[in-house]
Amino acid sequence: MVTVLTEHGATEVARAGEGGEGLWLGVAEAERATGWSLKAEGFCRREVCVPTPSGREAEFVRGKSVDVVAFWRLMGRPAVRDRSGETWLLGAGARDRTAALETMEAPDFILPDLDGRMHSLSNHRGKKVFLATWASW
After folding, report:
1. Whole-angstrom distance, CA of residue 122 vs CA of residue 134
2. Distance (Å, rounded) from C-alpha 45 to C-alpha 31?
3. 21 vs 129: CA distance, rounded Å
4. Taking a C-beta distance cutoff of 8 angstroms, is the pair 56, 66 a contact?
């Protein structure tokens, strides 16, 4: 099992195979982890498709497996893993991060208070919010 972290959260998936620096997942597992699916026109999410480069198909697709990291990097998005290869982070691209900064709207998140009650930032939209953080390191 491998943990894939995206902006939508963590997903546990079964690895379909090994392939150097890549993360080979079955087509269904890749879609579950990333929201992108393999179609005839390429790796797609809603109406956006990233075509497989002509002549390089084997770098991205093998049978019913997809190298998610290869597609992720083809889209100009960062992908990193821990040393063991058990946890992968598939990050947002620079264009997405820039667009989020331009709106000056913080992304939604949920955190517990000191009593363990969960609070979502989106529940406080339109209000002033003071957020104090602390870390022991």
Report:
1. 21
2. 9
3. 42
4. no
The conformation of residue 73, written as its DSSP 8-state character, comes to H
Domain boundaries, the chain: 2-96
Q: Which two tokens stand for residue 86?
A: 């058990």
Query: pLDDT 10s per residue in the chain (137 long)?
Result: 889 998 888 999 987 776 667 899 999 999 999 999 999 889 999 899 999 999 999 899 998 999 999 999 998 899 999 888 889 999 887 777 676 677 777 778 888 888 999 988 888 888 888 877 777 87
Ramachandran region of residue 76, left (φ > 0), alpha (ψ -120 to 50) or beta? left
99-102-104 Cα angle (round to 5): 115
Q: Is this model's pTM higher than 0.85 or not? A: no
